Amino acid sequence: xxxxxxxxxxxxxxxxxxxxxxxxxxxxxxYARWGNVLNSSIEVFAVKLPGxxxxxxxxxxxxxxxxxDEIITALLPTMKEKPFAxxxxxxxxxxxxALVDALKKLHNIEPVHIFLSGASAPYSEMRLKYPKRSELSxxxxxxWMTSIGGTPPELLSNPEVMKLFxxxxxxxxxxxxxxxxxxxxxQPPLSCPITCFDGKDDIPHDLQAWKxxxxxDFTVKMLDGSHxxxxxxxxxKILLDYITKQLETxxxxxx
Length: 255
What we know:
255 residues; Rossmann fold; seven-stranded mixed β-sheet
């Protein structure tokens, strides 16, 4: 399990776990920090994908099924052990959905809450019309990266850094682009609450389409900022306060 997740602070006494999924090209450290901030009732597992951090020498995944299979193999026992929630931003939102869809179909378990951020549902018309950015030239790709913000300009202008960073980012985008044509569910597969977050200045996302996957409560929250709004300290506090409140409520309902 330690190969697949980063956990800065083990909390055996925690009542629930928050499992976090990285954005395209991202690592696990940003979310792992949350384990030092959230209270003792919530343990944070940050997913670490191949091709980055301590797994830098491993080959990137080629499709979403590989992502789902690895996470289920590594984390299924812990997901059965106590209540868990998922958080995913952008690419991470789509991997969260793919995972929970498989968990429900194969093992009949689901999270107590799903927090999705910065992404249209994979079956929405808006997503189906997205250009395949993984096929852009490096020059055009960097221009797109600059336009969405969130990456320091000094990194984008550093060829050596980009040589290390771009392969992981493009690999993740290829995974999600090949997954984006799954069909809208005829019946909601889940019953847990879902909250969607987004930056007010980001490109529009079809957040309402996520409502189709659950019969539970559905909430949309818009925060100041663009695509990487969650990197801003004020927004991060809003996110973590909200997540904490929802999980504490879920804990009461669960038990």
